[in-house]
Amino acid sequence: MFADESLESVGVESVWRSCQQGALQARSCQTDALHSDDAGVQTRFSASIFTQTEPQEQTTDLLRQHDPAEPDPPGLLDFLRRTEDLIIRELVKNTRSHAFDGFQADWADRSQRVSCLHRLQHPSAQEKDLHVSSVSWSCTGSVIVCAYGRTDDGDWTNEKSCVCLWNLDRQNLNPKQADLVLEVPTAVTSVCCHPNQPALIAGGLYNGEVLVWDTSRTQDPVLVQTGMPAEGHREPVYQVSWVPLQRKAEFGVLSSSSGGRVLLWTVDLDRTRLVLDSGYAFIRQQVPHSGRTSMKVRGSSTVGVTAVALSPWDPDTFLVGSEGGLLLRCSFSSRTPAAVPAEDRGVVLRAPAVFSFRPSSGPVHSIHCSPFHRNLFASAGTDGLVHIHSLLQADPVLSVRVSDSYLFQAQWSPSRPLVFAAATGHGPVQFFDLACRALRPAATIEDGAADRAATCLAFNHQNRRLVAVGKSDGSVGVWQLSSDLVDPGPTETAQLEQIANQVSD
Amino acid sequence: MAEVEETLKRIQSQKGVQGIIVVNSEGIPIKTTLDNSSTVQYAGLIHQLVLKARSTIRDIDPQNDLLFLRVRSKKNEIMIAPDKDYFLIVIQNPSA
């Protein structure tokens, strides 16, 4: 059956070794000889000169100090006696004269009221079709911060977004490339620069987080953030602003979201978190009704906050606009607890609403208090009108029709008391001057493609002639205004006072 | 001395007056109600302006002489009463 067998071994020649030893060639190279040379130099003579600034002469040397013991120069009394009557007569005549009423000499070129200085774009944001959701100038007036997000989406998105900074005072400004890009995991809905420290920027995100970036840090610009705590926001944060805190001389971040909460956070650098300092919640039943409203609204009872304005005159007042069109005056120091279900919170939420103005028919997108009159503020919403309200009455003092489409933002000019600007959904930004009787826009910023909504605008408080406009195609335009839109006239504050005192019937 | 102050006070109390400066013939301010740096600035600039205005009038007609100078700007009006030894400069905002 089985028998032993032995076979010869089989050998396979190595093919690798033979091909390795295939062709060999030797080559050599050598660098050329290096030429070197020696030379010596010596100074023959030297001279030295010093300069030094002298201490600056006191300008007070020029002005002789009034020394009671020293007699007046001779003739001064006679001179004054001679000229006093003449001068007083002229002064009195001048106050009564109407010779120069309405007279304007124009030194600047009147043809161009607005001119575009820069058009800033961030290519990667434009590829993702992001809109500019918010712009803000730094406190020095030279850096503009643009936040990208979407203004028309109702859905949650997971798209990453960014915040871009351009320094307009740099010589090699590249409009297509930002000086600093901060990456953000979700869409940014609002940014605000710190009023004193140019490196701090507060931002609110679509998922309810609030962050503070410190652009002077190279490693990780996020200085503090809220994370997603239980007491934080759950809905997009539509507005953030820096608020001076009463207790310390610092600033806190006030954030408001469409979940009906307005929260005040303080920066806690030790734990690198934003700590909730106080919170306010809006419940429909706790909102004071102004008597004329007869809205029977069913559905959720939260009042989604879309716009917040701080009053520069009264640190206790703030104004709130809601998704349902409500316009409320609120107080930081209110003590009424809010009627929210009592969860385990560290901070008790309060109901701050004190007074309710006449509501509008659509969401209030923007409120801004006038920097020149303590009672006036402007509000803009989806009805195309800018309402100028006085804090003292429920109905608006004046309503100006700006356009037929939505209005995304309305801001008072920081230098002229009677001028305000409104960003419309069609695209142009209209400037209105309340001094002109005909309520047509005094100037318009139209930028390129029509139907690209202007979503946000910001005046530069340091350089009063600049205004930044963000559009829904992802570009930010920096425009320069002519001097008659910027320089205030002598009687404007009085005219503003007159407008504020009108009582509507 | 007191009468000089009284006179200046009377002028200062007129409506809209923002400041008064008395300058001598060399352009050095002697009396003022403004702060030092503004005074020195106004005195230097206005002194040159008055000399130029006076020479303009006298060049056109040597018998004529400058009586009063008013400079109206967007924000206020500067009135200057010149004399041999002194100038009186008053800054007024007429609509205030």
UniProtKB/TrEMBL annotation, chain B:
Location(s) in or outside the cell: Cytoplasm, Cytoskeleton
SUPFAM superfamilies, sorted: Roadblock/LC7 domain
Principal localisation: cytoplasm
GO CC terms in record: cytoplasm; cytoplasmic dynein complex; microtubule
Database matches in Pfam families: Robl_LC7 (PF03259)
Occurrences of domain Roadblock/LAMTOR2 (ranges): 4-92
Keywords: Cytoplasm, Cytoskeleton, Dynein, Microtubule, Motor protein, Transport
GO biological process terms, semicolon-separated: microtubule-based movement; transforming growth factor beta receptor signaling pathway
KW Transport (keyword) present: yes
Domain of life, source organism: Eukaryota
MF-aspect GO terms: dynein intermediate chain binding
PANTHER family: DYNEIN LIGHT CHAIN ROADBLOCK
Primary role: Acts as one of several non-catalytic accessory components of the cytoplasmic dynein 1 complex that are thought to be involved in linking dynein to cargos and to adapter proteins that regulate dynein function. Cytoplasmic dynein 1 acts as a motor for the intracellular retrograde motility of vesicles and organelles along microtubules.
Family: Belongs to the GAMAD family.
Identification of the protein by name: Dynein light chain roadblock
Source taxonomy: Eukaryota, Metazoa, Chordata, Craniata, Vertebrata
